[in-house]
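Task 17 of the worksheet. Students: predict the tertiary structure of the chain below and write it out as structure tokens. Keep your answer in the requested format; marks are given for formatting as well as content.
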Amino acid sequence: MRKRITGIIVIVWMAVIFAFSAQPARQSSKTSQSVSYKIAEWQSRLSGRQKTKEELTAQAQAMQLIIRKGAHMGEYAFLAFLLCVHLSCYGVNRSKMALLSLGLTACYAASDEIHQLFVPGRAGRLTDVCIDTAGGILGTVFFLFLCQGFLYRKTGKRR
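Model answer:
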């Protein structure tokens, strides 16, 4: 049952990534601009300095690339983490699980960039595959870190 549930969760997350990639460039930019603007507003409130709409818009535009690439990394970090959880249901040893998770994440990132070649205004970029794969590395390392901590607590020994 656990294998099915984790498998379904992985597939749903892949569908979410696909849906974001299927957005035309204009819609995707609008979404990331909106997120950037909200972050600029939040940062302005935290600093106690009231910025004008123009200042907030300029700050949001300056942050947009970082926000977009950070979102790429986050999406694929979560995918790799979910793949690790799913693969752990099959009793795969951790080193094979990590390599398989990273390989699958990198392949999905590459296929996603190919998919974007067919979306209006979007482009497939090797740099995005690298950014996505770096996110996959982070997600896998985070999973392994959690496993190490869990095993240490459970056995009292480091493995």
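Marker's comment: The mean pLDDT is 89. The CA atoms of residues 108 and 118 lie 16 Å apart.
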